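It would be a great kindness if you could assist me with a short task in structural biology. The matter concerns a single protein, recorded as an amino acid sequence and a row of backbone structure tokens. Kindly check, if you would, that the fold set down in the tokens agrees with what the sequence suggests. Thank you for your consideration; the sequence and its tokens are set out here:
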Amino acid sequence: MKKARRGIYAAAVSPFDADGSLNTSKLIAYCQHLLSDGGCDGVAPTGTTGEGTSIAMRDRLALPAAFAAAGIETDRVIFGTGAPASGDCVELTRAAVESGYKNVLVLPPYYYKGVSDDGLFSYYANLVEKISSDDLRIYMYHFPQMSQVPLSAALVTRLRAEFGPIIAGLKDSSGDFEQSRAIIEATGGVAEDFDVYPSSEAMLWDGLAIGSAGVISGSTNAFGAMAQKALQAAEGEERDAAMKVVIAARTMASGYPLMSAMKRIEAWRIGDEDWTRMAPPLVKLTVEQEKGLRADLDAMSAA
């Protein structure tokens, strides 16, 4: 079994057909691009940026087997398998594990609010016990703005103490660097083989300096190669210059609805307007937003 490699991950956007179903073959080709020319060390499909909670269960369940058939390396994929119903989370995780993808990104159950750490512990413990595999690697997904169910450092360390390396890491989408720091300090970070991933490449080297494992970001769909250049840059002026470019790109992207913008950019890249489809209730960029994004990208290229 291989734990997910560390580095730059894209929270991959998802292509949809006209009937609203996931276009699996297109997603696979896209992830192959991200893992090569896209500059990414790994991909995290069916997460928030991938509109995972809007994808039909039948499509999500079939996806890992399709990735395996395409030969995508198992240590370069972290599938999003979180769901409000613990049974759905178990089945999604089982589908990934049985196809060889043992690394999964798991949101807490996000319908009920104000739940206790004991309740959240039982949700993750149920997943571990039902999958019953020492090779399972769970990355907890802290995204309180979206889920409204935060994951405390105390809960993370309690699960880690109970289940050891099966609780492999955490994606911190809070946008609060101090939250990432608190989790790293509580768990020991990469020094103790616990992989914390902030959600913005703007935090890349600040995070690495305190023991993070890299980033899992929505904007690396378009700017993964920039982030990889910054990751590989020598300390000093070279790194500072590379990070300046990364931060500018991330700042620009944050001025638009991120998922729609990343899909618009991919549609432009390959000349396929179908990439702009969104799963309801999300919508495409407006005409004015598209014009602004195009102008911003052109300005970045000219800089």
